Amino acid sequence: MAKVAAVIPAAGQGRRMGTAVKKPFLLLGGFPVIYYTLRVMEESLLIDDVVLVVSPDEKEQCRTMVLSDFSKVKIIVTGGEKRQESVYNGLLALSADTRLVVIHDAVRPFLGLANLQAVVRAAETFGAATLAVPVKDTVKVAGEGGFINQTLPRNSLWLAQTPQAFQYSLIVAAHRRAREIGYSGTDDAGLVELAGQPVKLVFGSYENIKITTPEDLITAEALLRRKGE
Q1: What is the tens place of the pLDDT at every residue in 119-148?
Q2: Angstrom distance (rounded) from CA 17 to CA 31
Q3: Which domains are present in the chain?
Q4: DSSP label at 188?
Q5: In 3-state terms, what secondary structure has residue 212?
Q6: Which of 218, 222, 125 is CA-nearest to residue 165?
Q7: For residues 149 and 104, is the Cβ–Cβ distance under 8 A?
Q8: Cβ contacts of 178-186, under 8 Å, gap ≥ 24
Q9: Read out DSSP for 3-24?
Q10: Tens of pLDDT along 203-229?
């Protein structure tokens, strides 16, 4: 199999969490959230290298905390003001022989090995893939004045997750094009879509939550207890 690397963006400010400690470094079951994310990459037989992207003031902390525990973390790079810039910095730090790249949020600590494998295999076949889950709720589009403008058909709506996996050359080209035209997306799959490349949906897990708010951290603690960790 071609060389597979992972980029883990962990440089976000985390304003919605409302804590002095940034989200990847909040404690969950006695360990930083990012510990569980990196552990999955370390345990996966598919992942060869990991690039961690953090804020400038956290690089030394990460060197002490991460490099001693996770042998696949080959380099820690500085992130940008936005996630998209951080991911791009991580992509440029990968070795030239990388063929597939997995991009996974540092604050999604409950990724399962089977889901990681599924999205990598899909990217091998289709060039681009993302984990996602069907929406459970009815989705409304708001119009002026706070009234419903439209109800979207639920059977065609999915919630995108990470990891998202791509051919390395494809995702680098998509990022470069987005930079050239000044486009800012909310995920990497969106940049690939903009470039005209179809992205395969791979069924993920509703437990693969993103820890963004204090309520998410409560949910994460409950999931951790259920898993017995």
Answers
A1: 999 999 999 999 999 999 999 999 999 999
A2: 18
A3: 4-227 (3.90.550.10)
A4: H
A5: coil
A6: 125
A7: no
A8: 178/84, 179/88, 184/82, 184/84, 185/84
A9: -EEEEEE-----TTTT-SS-GG
A10: 999 999 999 999 999 999 999 998 876
